[in-house]
Amino acid sequence: MNKQRLARKARFLRWAMNFYPPYLGAGIRIQSLAADMRQIRVRMGLGWYNRNYVGTQFGGSLYSMTDPFFMLMIMENLGRDYIVWDKAANIEFVSPGKGPVFADFHIDEHLLEEIRQHTAAGDKYLPKLHVEVRDGAGTLVARVQKTLYVRRKPQARQAA
């Protein structure tokens, strides 16, 4: 996909995700999304709609703010020749989120090349990616590990 098309897609995706009802309802906003879709910053405020019984960020909302982004980033950067799914996730709650929290997602060419190498022969690959949720002061609130399932589509394997 050319860079201009990817940049347009990134702008649209940011807009669409910010109006996606589950995110809108939980107060989750995509603050920035790089034109190459390799960096995303997500923010979630603390309000009555995502506050738990003890007045801190609801754990389900903390996980939700991290859910689709690695999958989307990998999918858009690898292109249509690949199947990309979320396979597993783990979240560790470290400290209470008492205000706005942030998650910064990053992927690089090294990761994309690693995925291409592991899937070149048609094998599946299960990369494990990590993101931290931090509050405005930088205090760690949660650690999230995502395991993705990545495989070249059968048509792409036959064409190669």
UniProtKB/TrEMBL annotation:
SUPFAM superfamilies: Thioesterase/thiol ester dehydrase-isomerase
A Pfam entry, by short name: DUF4442
InterPro entries listed in its UniProt record: DUF4442, HotDog_dom_sf
Superkingdom of origin organism: Bacteria
Protein name per its UniProtKB record: DUF4442 domain-containing protein
